[in-house]
Design a protein that fits this description.
CATH architecture of the largest domain: 3-Layer(aba) Sandwich
Strand content: 15-25%
Distance between the termini: 19 Å
Largest sheet: 8 strands, mixed
Shape: globular
CATH superfamily of the largest domain: Glycogen Phosphorylase B
Number of domains: 2
CATH topology of the largest domain: Rossmann fold
Order of helices and strands: EHEEEHEHEHHEHEEHEHEHEHEHEHHH
Radius of gyration: 21 Å
Length: 364
């Protein structure tokens, strides 16, 4: 099967959609499919064509150079030029996916859309998402199949975009990591996620400064990259904890290092304001880490309901968070792994979906 996946960003760039697309594309290629990923090259510093883990990457120009919203006039034509049997679009919130699906709408090629809904640090963009979904509804109702990561996504998109429920299938993120070699440190707190105001690392820093009063050996590791790094480092200095805080990040090919960084944690905490299904937290749970989240979004509430993470109120004070980080019963929390999928599970479910769509298209 010749599959073209589209994603606004792809490896070596790092993020949830990027990881999902890479993990799925790689495993489908390993199963014998001819897989091409059409993506953008925001900074213009990556090759137009690249082969990576059996997957062909075709990068197209987009505007603006900083990335979002990834306008690319050529992308739809490039997808068609690869003569795909099926096209799978990853993510809907930028201009990249709607432009491609619009170009393909009269082609007769089966299309799949995985939504990857999530938050945006730009408050206006985030507030306009419901309007965007209603505007895009007529286009997305023409997609052959829609993939939601979570139960709440399915209900939300079906309602707001008026997409028939039978058009949906739920295929969550996978969460595989290499077996770690690190030893857990009960004094280490890990706050993973893109360095972006919406991720709540600043609230973790404030709570950590209070935690050190009861645990002078406490350390904080913030795992991620992003535009908020300088502000967070300045905050750590203001709170006089900079000597006890480290900022680390890992590329897509540094999975063992990433696994070790998570596994070493006495507790993993996320005070993000909004998440759909955060892969890093699933991975931390898979490693057996105690994972704490707030009840600030439906996606995080599903983690709590599934027993993957313990919960804090979305408006928890720094004192409340510090007390939770010091709570030995929460540190001993054992995540329920029964709801977690591997990336092979994801590839199998996706492959089955592709086969069904192509069988439905074949004249009998």
């Amino acid at each position: 099967m010749r599959v073209v996946m589209t994603s606004p960003r792809y490896a070596p760039l790092v993020g949830g959609v990027e990881l999902h697309t890479q993990a799925l594309a790689t495993r489908l290629a390993q199963r014998g499919h001819d897989v091409t990923v059409v993506t953008t090259n925001p900074a213009g510093d990556l090759p137009e064509f690249e082969a990576r883990d059996g997957v062909t990457i075709h990068r197209v120009p987009s505007w603006p150079r900083r990335g979002d919203p990834f306008f690319s006039r050529r992308a739809g034509d490039v997808v068609l030029a690869h003569s795909p049997d099926l096209v799978h679009a990853q993510g809907y919130q930028s201009a990249f996916t709607p432009l491609i699906l619009s170009r393909l709408s009269s082609s007769g090629i089966p299309t799949v859309l995985t939504f990857h809904g999530g938050a945006n640090a730009n408050r206006l963009r985030h507030a306009l998402y419901p309007v965007q979904r209603r505007v895009l509804g007529p286009l997305f109702r023409r997609v052959s199949a829609c993939v939601s990561l979570t139960r709440f996504e399915l209900a939300l998109y079906a309602r707001e975009m008026k997409i028939p429920l039978e058009r949906f299938v739920t295929i969550p993120n996978g969460c595989d990591l290499p077996t770690p070699t690190s030893v857990p440190d009960p004094h280490l707190v890990v706050s993973p996620g893109r360095l972006d105001p919406i991720k709540g690392h600043d609230r973790v820093l404030e709570a950590f400064s209070l935690l050190r009063r009861s645990d002078p050996d406490a350390r904080l590791r913030i795992v991620g990259t992003g535009p908020d790094e300088d502000r967070l480092k300045a905050l750590a200095a203001t709170l006089k904890v900079e000597a006890h805080v480290e900022f680390v990040s890992f590329g897509p090919d540094e999975r063992l290092g990433f696994a070790n960084a998570l596994h070493e944690a006495g507790v993993v905490i996320s005070l993000s304001k909004s998440e759909t299904q955060p892969i890093t937290l699933l991975e931390a749970a898979r490693l057996g880490c105690s994972v704490g989240v707030t009840d600030s979004s439906p996606g995080l509430c599903e983690l709590i309901e599934n027993g993957v993470a313990w919960s804090l109120p979305h408006d928890a004070s720094a004192e409340t968070v510090a007390a939770a980080l010091a709570d030995q019963s929460l540190r001993a929390f054992t995540p329920n792994l029964s709801s977690l999928w591997t990336w092979d599970d994801v590839a199998t479910a996706t492959n089955d979906l592709y086969a069904r769509l192509l069988a439905d298209r074949t004249p009998r």
